[in-house]
Specification:
158 residues; alpha+beta; YaeB-like fold; 32% helix
Length: 158
């Protein structure tokens, strides 16, 4: 069983992104949460995954749907990658980014942790916890920055 949760810090990050970008991130996370097969692939370094009904389609609603559809969402392609510097420090941290369709969310990085635990009924639960949602910057993956220290602290609290 796979579970995807969002840490309080990441919820604040999403709110800070604003309605359009934050909404797109939430739609992506919800589409992942609902698909056990995709969640199971979030540990495949350099995987490119297609997430159906994850992204608001670009352009005015009438252009997207011709006025006939109630679901204006399209597929997104995401890329999964280990956060190498954190891995070398013993932390199981990953990032995903949207690589298609083109749009405003391309600069967003979703940083998540992986932990495994045993459910009281005996089965293994694979937990993915989103720790940060940030706009890609020159120091996004640098150790020792306020962002990486915040992520490390949240990771240790899991």
């Amino acid at each position: 069983m796979h579970e995807l949760t969002v840490h309080d810090d990441a919820e604040e990050d999403i709110e800070a992104l604003g309605w359009e970008t934050g909404g797109a991130v939430l739609a992506l996370l919800e589409a992942l949460r609902e698909n056990q097969a995709l969640l199971g692939r979030l540990l495949e370094h350099r995987a490119e995954l297609e997430v159906e009904s994850a992204m608001p389609a670009a352009g005015p609603r009438e252009q997207r749907t011709g006025g006939a559809s109630d679901d204006p969402r399209g597929a997104a392609v995401i890329e999964v990658e280990k956060w190498q510097a954190q891995w070398r420090q013993g932390r199981d941290l990953w990032r995903l980014k949207v690589i298609a369709p083109p749009g405003h969310i391309h600069e967003i990085r979703v940083i998540y942790a992986y932990k495994q635990r045993t459910h009281p009924l005996g089965h293994v639960v694979h937990e993915y916890t989103v720790l940060a949602v940030v706009t890609r910057g020159d120091d996004t993956y640098e150790l020792g920055t306020p962002l990486s220290e915040r992520i490390e602290k949240a990771y240790e609290e899991l």
